[in-house]
Amino acid sequence: MHPITRRGLAAAAVLAVLVAASACANDAQQAAENVPGVSDTEVVIGTHQPLTGPAAPGYSKISAATKAYFDHVNSKGGVNGRKIVYKVLDDGYNPANTDNVVRKLVLQDKVFALLGGLGTPTHTNVLEFVKSQKVPDLFVSSGSRNWNQPDKYPTTFGWQPDYTVEGKILATFVKTEFPGKKVCHFGQNDDFGRDSLVGVEKILGPVAAKQTYTTTNQQVGPAIGALKAAGCEVVISATIPGFTALAMGQAAGQGFRAQWVVSNVGADYTTLARQLGDKKAILEGLIADNYLPMANDASNPWIQEFTKIHQQYNAANPIDGNAVYGYSMAYTFVQALLAAGKDLTREKLVEAVRRGGFKGPGLTPFRYADKVHAGYSGVRMNRVTNGVQSYFGPTWTTDDADGAVKEFTEAPSAPPADAIPTT
Amino acid sequence: MTATRPTDVSRTDRPSGGPSPLRRLLPGPPGILAPGGSTLLRHLILAVLAGTLVVLLTNQLPPYQNLQVARVCAFLCVTAGYTVLVGLNGQLSLGHGALMATGAYTVALTRQAFDERAAQGRWVLPLALLLAVVVTAAAGLVIGLAAARLRGPYLAGVTLAVATLVPAITTIFTGVFNGEQGLRFPAETPPAFLGPYFQPERWLAWVALLAALTTMLLMANLVRSRFGRSLRAVRDDEVAARLAGIQVAGIQVAAFVVSAACAGLGGGVYAVLTATVAPGKFSLELSLFLLMAIVIGGLGSLAGAVWGAVLLVALQDLPSLLTETFTLPSGLAQRLEGNLALAVFGLILIVVMLAAPGGVQGVARRLTARLGPRRRAPRR
Amino acid sequence: MDRFLFLTFDGLSTGAVYAAFALALVLIWRAARLVNFAQGAMAVATAYVGYAVVSATGSYWLGLGAAVLAGLALGALVERVLMRFVGHANPLNDVIVALGLVLLIQAVLGMVFGNEYRPTAVPFDTDALTVGGITAVSPYDLWVLGAVVVVVALLALLFTRTPIGLRMRASAFAPEVSRLLGVDVSRMLTLGWALAAAVGALAGMLVVPTGLGLHPHAMDLVFVIAFTAAVVGGLDSPAGAVVGGLLVGLILSYVTGYLGPDTTPLAILVLLLAVLLVRPGGLFSSVRARHV
């Protein structure tokens, strides 16, 4: 061995060991810090959203509405004197990007909490990280039951009714409204479709036929053909909007006339009609469910308030189901923030949501409790008649286990002034 | 892909003979690099020096930046092996994202299996990574055997199909891979002797760094070995290589296996960084971005692989960076959000390729060549 | 049996659109010896033009014409402004520039039109005709098939019967010799790009109504499948593209119908390997793909 080579090697090795041993002393001081993201004038929160890519249609409008609502709240002085800064980062619905942007939000931007991170496969990925950082992870935008695991993920909360709750209610409706009909299920091949089917079969027993689709394969013809061949008369459908339109279009094309009963996730009439264009007539008679005021219901006081905010801060987008979703979720967040009190800490926010009891635009109560991190407890059915989607019948509530499906009779609450909660 | 003739998938101004690519990255004192010193040792010293520098750097960095360093290192494992396959051996693969997934899922399943049996210890991670390398190399062997018969766009077509497999496989075997939600396993934590307040992200960066340095070291030596010369000979002229007694198909398969092993290690480390795997992370998009990375970095050069790895991470963070810069609440800003980052990145790709066909490393090489006379004449 | 026939019709009608798009890829390959990864994004861009004209004028046929013209223009533009200047230090540079173009086009479309689905119009009914109790093809499917057949016939005429077609083929296969014989090789290259992009535009107009709707990413999946189809058929052969497209469409339909929608990528890989390991240059390869 060349002597200089040997000496160089030795020097480098010693250097490396020294460097490793001297690892930063400032780690210890970084560990103790004030509440991240909270100052006297601001509270910084963040989210991951599909602003681009194949999941962007529709969903990219949710965070726009949430942001608009916070702009509105900030213009009235914020919450407890703090303005809400909502950092919306694009993850393109790719879990690898979700990993990155959530770590950036928490580690670098030091957000106080996450709000409304969108998507099951995306958000499932960051649950462990969020837990290890003890970040409040409120109101994940997905109906997966993953968010309701308080023992495993103590800071994560769902918001919308989960797919099983919805499936149970859709099935109950079908059972009473279409007795003796052949009921089938069409679903996405992930937790959305699976959880929905679980709920449906809890009520109806095994369905006559079930078919699935995957978002990377737009050939739904064979699945619809199979449902037709099985003689289905009612199809309960757990589909995202694009595939609701695609499947119903295929069914119409094949002359397959069944009653479609579609999950609220994929049944916003405005979104579907825009996608179908001239063919939107096939949506006539579509039955679906929801748990928020219908965007087209101009007589609803909540929609009136949201429309005012919309026109001022979010006019570039249509006021549709996605916008109402964004406004309502932001409203719940402000309620939680108020309930957490003036001396804001992450623990207090989590505690506040656990106490629950929030009343807002939603038709049913939240299920939040000490050991329950699930959101809305039920839905109400709606139907498209002459191009207008409107509610009919009772509001139902249930749980994701074997609890009964019950009618909920309490009248919806009225919005406070400016649609800003005071308590 | 765009080969006019079957054999010239990649004829580039490669680092021929001469000093190793690593040296261009980090020129050491001339004495150490004196001719006659062992290549292995020279590379080893460079690796230790580079490692020391990065460790010094990570000691100064906050958590998120350390994660970025860690991601660069994880991607470097992949790009180093990938650029050898595409640049030096002339075989185009569009399926390296799927190979990364193979490594990542192997690590996840191994860690889960040990976790369930409550078998813990520092040795689990190296073992899991080793398994990732072995399993992915085996996958590479299968693809390589098919690839050795195919050329140009036909090879691209098959590997493109491989790249789209991950979601299908994970959904078909949901019981093992848990469908589109993927797997979670215990996160890698710093060893106790580093103290209770040691930044976990720094430890991750060190783990990834060790993997990257090992890969670079092995690749640098491989490139300069007899095997490396055979790789280039096969790329440049298959007939001549055969006449010279080289087993063309054998070399091609071996190149695929080596490259796959690197991708497996990189994928495994990538999984360790977040302690999760999901099919959505290993989409076709990733495979195409990997290809962009090595070409923009400088095809066939290990230093180019470093540029490529840096680029991949920069690219992942570009969208969020730009969304933050433009927070105008108008309709126009909403349309620009996200899209603007993609447009900028697309433009950069085009401009770099037009202005610097040899990639970033091509430019760097030209600059260094202009700065000082070369110590040794390049030899083929 | 009914199920089989139904799936066959379903596969043929989706296969026809893959065939149309594979054809565009083959045209570029024949003209410039490269696989144009930006073909899908370019087709989407022209489809936006086409449907903008449809909604402005109310006429599908004007929109179709506008899309094809936009395709001609875009193809020529991309070749003249971009691809012509790509250095050939290594042949992957074309691919990277094309991928850059994909990002750029999709982002610009997103900025201009928004990342939303836009409805599309169709000239014929999409309700399927029923033949002997079996749901068969719709008038729209027949129009797609017919359009593809006509395009193939026109291209065959162009390349074998017209001087300009012969010149295009000559300059692609032997550029040096053609130049010596007085063929304007550079113009032929531009023409090749324009023609391919026009066929791509037509394919885009045909494909988009069968999917989720007009959207910057509307052709992403179609590109991957059509590329497979072109490779299966053999990149040098327009007939191969059509056969490859129909074959891939059929297999996707059978696999989706009998095994489930998740298994299709696996089926595509098996098809590719089965074909290419026997014929490494695709089904319709005329030249040997390997010289050793």
Greatest interface (CB-CB under 8 A), with counts per chain: A-B, 63 and 69 residues
Based on secondary structure, the structural category of chain B is mainly alpha
**Major sheet: arrangement of strands of chain B:** 1-2
Oligomeric form of this entry?
A: heterotrimer
Evaluate the radius of gyration of chain C.
Answer: 19 Å
Gap between N and C termini of chain C: 47 Å
Low-confidence stretches of chain C: none
DSSP strand tally of chain C: 2
In spatial order, strands of the major sheet of chain C run 1-2
Q: Can you tell me the overall shape of chain C?
A: globular
Class based on secondary structure composition and strand pairing of chain C: mainly alpha
Largest sheet of chain B: 2 strands, antiparallel
List low-pLDDT spans of chain B.
1-36, 376-380
Estimate what percentage of residues of chain B fall within beta strands. under 5%
How far apart are the first and last residues' alpha carbons of chain B, in Å? Answer: 25 Å
Helix-strand layout with pairing:
The complex is a heterotrimer of chains A (423), B (380) and C (292).
Chain A lengths: L2 H19 L4 H6 L10 E8 L6 H20 L7 E8 L4 H14 L4 E3 L4 H5 L2 H7 L3 E4 L15 E3 L4 H15 L5 E6 L2 H14 L4 E5 L7 H9 L4 E5 L2 H13 L5 E4 L6 H8 L10 E4 L10 H13 L7 H20 L5 H10 L22 E8 L2 E10 L8 E3 L15
Parallel strand pairs in A: 1-2, 1-3, 3-4, 4-5, 6-7, 6-8, 8-9, 9-10
Antiparallel strand pairs in A: 10-11, 11-12, 12-13
Chain B lengths: L20 H5 L13 H22 L2 H26 L7 H21 L7 H24 L4 H12 L1 H8 L1 H4 L5 E2 L15 H24 L2 H11 L1 H6 L4 H27 L1 E2 L6 H15 L3 H24 L5 H6 L2 H17 L3 H13 L9
Antiparallel strand pairs in B: 1-2
Helix pairs in contact in B: 2-9, 3-9, 3-12, 3-13, 3-14, 4-5, 4-12, 5-12, 9-12, 10-12, 13-14, 13-17, 14-16
Chain C lengths: L1 H31 L6 H19 L2 H23 L9 H22 L16 E2 L2 E2 L3 H23 L1 H11 L1 H6 L4 H23 L12 H14 L4 H22 L4 H15 L14
Antiparallel strand pairs in C: 1-2
Helix pairs in contact in C: 1-5, 1-8, 1-9, 1-10, 2-3, 2-4, 2-8, 3-8, 5-6, 6-8, 9-10, 9-11, 10-11
